[in-house]
Amino acid sequence: MSVDFLHPGEGAAIDTNVPALELRGIGKRFPGVVALDNVDFTLEPGKVHALMGENGAGKSTLIKIMAGVYGKDAGTIRMRGREVDIKSPRDSLKEGIKVVFQEIALISEFTVAENIFLEGYPTGKAGSIDWKKIRADSAALFNRIGFNVDPAARTGSLPVSQQQMVEIARALAHEARVVVMDEPTSSLTPNEVSLLFTVIRRLAALGIAVVYVSHKLDEVFEIADTVTVLRDGRHISTKPIGEHSNDTLIQDMIGRRIDNLFPRKRGAPGSKIALSVESLSTAKKLSDVSFEAHAGEVLGFFGLMGAGRTELAKAIVGYDPITSGTITVDGHRLAPHDTRTGVKLGIGLLTEDRKSEGLMGELPVYQNASLASLGAFARLGFVDKAKEHKAVQDYVDRFRIKTPSLFQQVKNLSGGNQQKVLISRWLMRGLKVIVVDEPTRGIDVGAKSEIFALIDRLAGEGLAVVMMTSEMPELLGLADRVAVMCEGRLTAIMSREEATQEKILNAAIG
Amino acid sequence: MSELTHAPAQKRFIGGQLLGSSQLVLGAILAVLCIAISIAAPQFYSEANIVAILRQCALVLIVASGMTMLIITAEVDLSVGASLAFVGCIGMAVLNSTHSLTLGMLAALAFAGGVGLFNGLVVTRLRVNSLIATIGTMMMLQGGVYLFTREAVQNHNRLASFTDLGAGYVGAVPVPVILAALIFVVAYVTLRFTTLGRYLYAVGANEKAVRLSGLRSERLKLFAFVVTGLCVGVAGMILSSLMNAGQPTAGRGFELTVIAAVILGGTSLLGGRGSLFGTLLGVLVLKVIDNGIIILGWNQDLQMVVPGIVIILATYLDIIRNKANVR
What we know:
Order of helices and strands of chain B: HHHHHHHEHEEHHHHEHHH
Number of helices of chain A: 17
Distance between the termini of chain B: 24 Å
CATH superfamily of the largest domain in chain A: P-loop containing nucleotide triphosphate hydrolases
CATH topology of the largest domain in chain A: Rossmann fold
Strand order of the largest sheet of chain A: 6-7-8-3-9-10
Oligomer: heterodimer
Mean pLDDT of chain A: 89
Number of helices of chain B: 15
Shape of chain B: globular
Largest interface: A-B, 39 and 30 residues
Structural class of chain A: alpha/beta
Number of domains of chain A: 2
Radius of gyration of chain A: 25 Å
Strand content of chain B: under 5%
CATH architecture of chain B: Orthogonal Bundle
Strand order of the largest sheet of chain B: 1-4
Structural class of chain B: mainly alpha
CATH architecture of the largest domain in chain A: 3-Layer(aba) Sandwich
Radius of gyration of chain B: 20 Å
CATH class of the largest domain in chain A: Alpha Beta
Helix content of chain B: over 70%
Low-confidence stretches of chain B: 1-20
Number of strands of chain B: 4
């Protein structure tokens, strides 16, 4: 490995007129699906280019072709004007393309420095690895991106945000001309996001073309110079960000207009207290949390990462143990403190982590939907399948769950439809209080509005909805009252009318 | 339930429901084996030989019925072989001192059920991985049986009913085969038609989701461990009846045969996926191979080698089939 990276801009002078990477007429089909159809994608050096689209639009296929994970079926790829043939991830890296995937591909047992130089350790005399140089070079790389990570740290011990920096340093070590960031902020705190953006701007200043894959509109407006939108495997638009508004971007992404992301059809909340939590504390996070939620109300909980929203959600449904405090659901105390009692009293959690806590991916849709209410379809312990299927079908129709059949494995459904299946699970059981934790995480813009409408409808049907969210628009668009948490404490509760972004953020900082 | 949870559902819509079943592969393997062996050795199809194969299958199938439930919940029990030997010794000792088959049987069930309960508690309460926990139990039982008896516990009671347990017939059908069939049917109906069965699949597919739904996931797993133990109790008594003694050395490697049959039948070690019908086919395949090797006069050491090859091959075929489904 050469040491050119320590001296940016030397040697190959960056010609801003020649695209860093030019994809022309890219086509890719999988059996039964056209994943990409004649897609053009051109990257200018020194610019941040956002790649947007809903799940299944072809974003990941496109970046996987750039990364050499998939081969293309049609089209050409040019690096700085020269046609290249990318057949493997190795080729891609050699040509100067570095993709930082959402699931970071570092060896967690290795040190940061070892990971950076994984593809070729600098060697000293007698072919032994020159550790001193590796460490020094790593430090120099971090210096260039303006972010310091200890080169000797074990990679697995670092937070995701720093692992991303290691990946970026790797990109520089390979003299990458193109750096692709795939949904980089999905598990970052707001603070980490702004640090990442600083680093991305640095990369651009070094003349690197950055591809920013995301479906978060606000981030794209903040960081991108240009936006390309894909839909159903086709190129829809490429425009400077200045020519876009929220509405036009959404329209390009979903192919239709959404007039109102937060339709409100329900009436005013009732006065009946459905859930009452008094001085709740847990061993790790929560201290002295008290609040009430009314029937027919959406009570939104906001907080920054680590504020304790998920902990609160899991504690009040009886999933996680508590050290003190009482929880009362519809007049009955939640004791013993377990989910069995919780569900009996009518409180349930729609988890933020669908895959590991909600879905039974291998099992069919109908079994996922009926899990909490199976007893109602049984006689003497035997399941009346006809009755069960009919009930599930009813929900599939009502919520317009898109599935080829009740027997489809639920893992094959889209995020939005999976979420609807999980909501059905609770509605079939019949709840008084539903706690929804980040209800639209990993869900497309188009499906989001449907989930919002569903939540509105739940409250309209008299449920108390306790909603944990880190998305400000979601909070302000849906909640009747806003509760704010900071470091395990409840710092404010305000009505929808009082709530402003500023007030909420102030309370969230503590 | 089995075919629903099994077949990736796309298959249903491209009309490949038959191909979607891993049991088909196994059924084909079984058919090929039977045909090949009977061509080479026509006595394979004699009534005596078929009865012998079924009797061989009975012991494995009894324990494999419980084990299928357990593996569907994403746990496993490696102590069943060691427990089998211990149970036989205890059952025989109780039988000798009480001269009552009922008491002997109860003692065997209590012991084996107790072992299952112990395994289940260690796994669900202490949260020790079941692979490790039951290796521990296996070692305790293997050593423990010698603390109980240094040599085989001989049959001193000459109870006809006890002898019948292993060697008797009802009509032309051996008693162990009838017992195995009964246990198989009960387990099959439970897994396929009852809420309990559905919960067992659910807990294997996603334990956290089950707990969030207000169900007691630990109890479900505990249940599967105890059922597996009770099956070992029945099998242990049959084995000691067949050998007319409680043998502390019996059952070595038995756990591997049982688990192999379950896995061969398409039940996933990751839980949430599997069927008893597949297990039945798995047991038949393994035992037909055993039998074929004997009938053909091959080296008996191949009785371990060939099933090993078959397991790898069958699992590989299953992977290929799944890949084909995904595309």
